[in-house]
């Protein structure tokens, strides 16, 4: 069944059907209702490519993430797609795997598909690639790294709020010898988490007890491998804060391999609060970064950027973080 069948059933012209399915407001509500009733009755599915040619709009939004294997990102993608679909947009996804060449390919694909806006939920984008998008007046939204500019939105995660809660939690449990396992050194979000942790452990209450700082890779294997370095350190840490949950779950696995347990032998805290954190053994204490809030703000920022009348640039939108206490942390010496 095609558009002519819809027009015949609704008793309107083909042009009226086209205007209705493309959301043109000049169609009266009564006629629009009749057209949509006919669309449903005959099972007509509009050709989105043809509609894009007619309207000059692709109705596609780009979403760029780093590591699709990290459960943090599928949860973010699901939320972003939910908001986009509700507003009549499709989502073109690109995953860079922290590879600059993949990032360049992803940006090129999005330009070729004439996306109407791009949410950059990763921090490894080169300025030249950014300019390819801004030079075409494509609205953008960034997390942590966005430059000020017209039709550019910025989301700033308050990493320090949740990390400070985590550090205070460990202090109240009696821990003074802390370790930190970071993420890739060139990843902006990992840098910000590391800097926040160092600020939160530099106060007078720590009496010069400097934490053991290790670099990781934000992956399960990296967390598991870091356990040997934690156990061989002198003095040995009693608690470790991990830059993301995958690292923390890897640490739990590494402890198990060594015949040790959390929190009896080492208290462990992660960051992100991915879904599996609640189901690890033991359930992981972690800092929650709400993905649905992040997805919502990213989508709303792109919608604001698509409004030609919007003011040049917008104020950074904060995303708050908070501690979720579960079973992987305990008072020092508890059960051991």
Number of helices: 12
Major sheet strand order = 2-1-3-4-5-11
State the CATH class of the largest domain. Answer: Alpha Beta
SSE string, helices as H and strands as E: HHHHEHEHEHEEHEHEHEHEEHEE
Structural class: alpha/beta
- Mean pLDDT comes to 88
What is the rounded Rg?
25 Å
Percentage of residues in strands:
15-25%
Q: Output the CATH topology of the largest domain.
A: Rossmann fold
The named CATH superfamily of the largest domain:
Response regulator
Quickly count the domains.
3
Fraction of helical residues: 40-55%
How far apart lie the N and C ends?
72 Å
Structure description:
The structure is a single chain. The chain has 12 helices and 12 strands. Helix content is 43%, strand content 16%. The model has no long low-confidence stretch (mean pLDDT 88). α1 packs across α2 and α5 packs across α12. A 6-stranded parallel β-sheet has the order 2-1-3-4-5-11, with helices on both faces. It has a 6-stranded mixed β-sheet with strand order 7-6-8-9-10-12, sandwiched between helices. The protein folds into 3 domains: 53 residues, Orthogonal Bundle (434 Repressor (Amino-terminal Domain)); 128 residues, Response regulator (Rossmann fold), CATH 3.40.50; 131 residues, Rossmann fold. With 336 residues, the protein is α/β, with parallel strands linked by helices. The longest helix is centred in the C-terminal third of the chain and has 16 residues. α9 links the parallel β6 and β7.
